[in-house]
Specification:
135 residues, mainly alpha, 7 helices
Amino acid sequence: MSERVFRLITGMVLWAILLVSTIYQNNTLMIVFCIVLLLEGITNWRIPTIVSKIRFGQSAVNSNQKIDEIKTSPLNHIEAERMMRFVVVLFLLISFFSLPNVLWFFPWYVAGMMIVSGISNICPMVMFLRWVGFR
């Protein structure tokens, strides 16, 4: 599973969670979703990498990973895809739990952008994070 497919699936799951949480007024699924993304960001055990290891073995995963020889910034140690998970969790926590009456549209926007970035393989957040200096 590539990061592109993961973003598409993550956006669709987030969209479904938002629908369920607005219909049933229950935030449990959103909390679980945020915890899973946060654990992926902290541990760097990404679901696409784990699925690729299970399907194709260790050699397929190692051939797809890029290793930067030159490290010019401390930000180069953290990947942009990993940091994107932190940013998504931060946006969801702020908009869904802190200010739900004011920023009610923002979780829907995040889900929509994840679906679009999964379809087009162009993620503005990852591009911005790479421009800032993440790997």
